[in-house]
Amino acid sequence: MPRRKRHVESASEESDNSNGNESEEDHTEQTTRLTRRSAASNSTQHLDTLPPPKRKRIVREPAVSGSDSEETPEAQGSKANEKNKQQSNRGKAKNSAKKTQSEGKTVHFNGDVVDEEDMDEENLLGLTERRATPKTNYDETSAHCPLPGCDSKGHLSGRHESHRTLTSCPLFHNTSAEECKTRFESRAKHTEDKKKVLAEMKDRRGLRQLVPSESQKAKLEKVTKARSKKPEITEDVREKHRQHKQKHGNSRQPLITGLTSDYDYELFREAQARACELLIKEEHQMTQHFAKTDLQEYRIKKLEIGCFEINTWYSSPYPEEYARLPKIYLCEFCLKYMRTATILRRHMAKCLWRHPPGDEIYRKGNISFFEVDGKKNKVYCQNLCLLAKLFLDHKTLYFDVEPFLFYVMTENDASGCHIVGYFSKEKNSFLNYNVSCILTLPQYMRQGFGKMLIDFSYLLSKEEEKVGSPERPLSDLGLLSYRSYWKDVLLDYLHKYKGQEICIRDVSQETAINANDIVSTLQALGMLKYWKGKHLVLKKQELIDEFLEKKASRPADFANKVIDSSCLKWIPQNKRGSPS
């Protein structure tokens, strides 16, 4: 929403265009010009003590207007009034500065001492950086627990002295603040004991057979003995639970005492407390995410897909209710985006997809490629484009996916086909572009998958009997990947070429690489010279030997990540028969 500017003239500006008889009317007009905050607080603060609002900076100097050489008596009178107001404002600023210094709330801004309440007022007036969302004052709006009869003291986790939600209310969970604090201290002690046990196990990890230590045996015996003491559920226990249900209804958690052993009961209480701590942590992250100014960009900062949590690089036009979240969750098979981990977990339990939609056109080992038509699987392709925009700055296509084909690369295991990356291409490209957009997900970068995607795009161009080139502009990482690929292909071609003369056109036809890309790569390698009106390709044997040595020293996993043309089962679009 654009910022609304307020134009408030000073008293001296009005005095230049007024007569002496209109001084009282000017005073009345000035007092009726109220700001939004002063109008809300006019019952407690006098209007004449309001400082005149400034436009851009918070300054404590009086506004100067009019001519310095010519001053009318009316202007002099208005200046005297203005001077008195400035003196009173300075006195007020000093008093507020002393007050904030004593309370530890002084804020220095452009060399002045400003109270936080004044800063809030100036934010509302548009004088300083305006917040993207208003600061929530929990002391006024939600300082009390909504449960009737609760005094907001204590916290279910035992870590804090007060609470304001049912999730962290001890009374709602049929316990007290003292019990929660005692459980927190016991939990902290248990954590320290667990660290000691883990340290002992780490020291004994070199042994072939890890025999339980004495402390572990004592712990196991203690837990077994405690869990064996299960109480009998008598009629008195049932009656007690029934009366609790009738008295409190849904305003309290059902009673769970007397249903299981004390050890299991305390274990459940500990799980509740830990879950409450996690919820508080997520709430704090949300608060920090939304507590930003307009100068800072609102965007998704983290993405969880599969077993990976990824930091995003750029913003993406997800729907507004998702784009303003600090983190979103994606199904790694259908790419549906969700708000919370709970929704994702429920979705994964119901989602039937285990691979991208479309036809599997390539498979070798655990690597597969799926051809997805943007017209047939529109929602999936749109979700794929939104995901790609989180890591590509220049991507502009998100929703108009029908003219494109998407080739999704996956890594397969027992749980399904996990997306590694993809590239898209137009169905009918006028400029013979074989790639419109290409992306390798960050968790799979620097593992050889990027070159596999590029090599597969050129393999499709060879099957189509065309020469291809990626659509420009390329991202920085994309340009580096393509240059590295072109360099490897050309050096490998020159190593196998035994002739004395070579034609760039022939190289382009055999490798499906555009001639302009070949020329730029040879120039970067210093292998293209112009002599006596002809372009000569110089075969530098030292570059070829360096390439072969580097290729031989690659790890086995990296060396095996190559595209095998015999594993491709695909018919080009122009050779497919019309559907019956």
Write a structural description.
- 43% of the residues lie in helices and 12% in strands.
- It is α+β, with helices and mostly antiparallel strands and 580 residues long.
- The protein folds into three domains: 11-125, no CATH class; 166-204 and 215-285, no CATH class; 354-575, Aminopeptidase (3-Layer(aba) Sandwich), CATH 3.40.630.
- The strands form five sheets. A five-stranded antiparallel β-sheet has the order 7-8-9-10-12, sandwiched between helices. A four-stranded mixed β-sheet has the order 4-3-5-6. Strands 1-2 form a two-stranded antiparallel sheet.
- A hairpin with a 2-residue loop joins strand 3 (302-305) and strand 4 (308-311).
- Helix 15 packs across helix 17.
- The protein is elongated, with a radius of gyration of 36 Å.
- Residues 1-50, 53-76 and 96-141 have low confidence and may be disordered.
